[in-house]
Amino acid sequence: MRLENASAGAVEPAMVWLRLSSDATVAQQIAKMRQTFPSQALVVLSDIPSDLEALAVLSCSARAYCNTHAGKEVLSKVAAVVEQGGLWIGESIMQRLLAPTDSQRPLTVLAGHAWATNLTEREIEVAKAIALGGSNKEIAAQLEITERTVKAHIGAIFEKLKVRDRLQLALLVKNS
């Protein structure tokens, strides 16, 4: 295990990076990191990433999981998302989290659920579309509104539901 951003006498970083090794379990490595950095956002890097390892990392309260060999642009995006309080996970794990329990039917969400109580009808439509994995552009086309309007609805939804990102919203909608 290698600790990144750790230097004696320095101001504690807001984010730390951990490159996983094969000499200990994910939980052991993260627990050791948490002894030194108990409250910092944790980004975990893996030489051989997998969905199962990603789930283990996220269940240990890490804020991001990605390939050690990711390019500079990707790592910059990871840092930006984590700095803003979001989660960074790969597309395959996102699909696994959002996949309907019955693969034969699409995700259906009724407006009567508690999460939808304070939302407008249009915000509910946008939230459902996000839960189904729609991009802003796709949602705009589907609802025949502009992307700017979609972004405004998303901002209002996040604020009303007290969620930080699309993943949290999708999990809230799907699991209601």
Describe this structure in a few short sentences.
With 176 residues, the protein is α/β, with parallel strands linked by helices. The chain has helices at 26-36, 51-59, 72-83, 91-98, 121-131, 136-143, 147-161, 166-174, and strands at residues 2-3, 15-19, 41-46, 64-67.
Can you describe what's shown?
By secondary structure, the chain is α/β, with parallel strands linked by helices. It folds into 2 domains: 2-97, Rossmann fold (3-Layer(aba) Sandwich), CATH 3.40.50.2300; 102-174, Orthogonal Bundle (Arc Repressor Mutant, subunit A), CATH 1.10.10. It is 47% helix and 10% strand. The chain contains 8 helices and 4 strands. It has a 4-stranded mixed β-sheet, with helices on both faces. β2 (15-19), α1 (26-36) and β3 form a beta-alpha-beta unit. α6 (136-143) packs across α7 (147-161). It starts with a strand and ends with a helix.
The total of helices stands at 8
Model regions low in confidence, pLDDT < 50 over at least 5 residues: 1-7, 101-112
Into which percentage range does the β-strand content fall?
Answer: 5-15%
Structural class computed from helices and strand pairing: alpha/beta
Work out the radius of gyration: 18 Å
The shape, in one word, is: elongated
End-to-end CA span: 39 Å
CATH architecture descriptor name of the largest domain: 3-Layer(aba) Sandwich
The average pLDDT score comes to 82
For the record, the count of structural domains works out to 2
Oligomer: single chain
What is the C-level CATH assignment of the largest domain? Answer: Alpha Beta
Instruction: Spell the H/E element sequence.
Output: EEHEHEHHHHHH
Remind me, CATH topology of the largest domain?
Rossmann fold
CATH superfamily of the largest domain: Response regulator
Q: How is the largest sheet built, in terms of strand order?
A: 1-2-3-4
Largest sheet: 4 strands, mixed
Please bin the fraction of helical residues: 40-55%
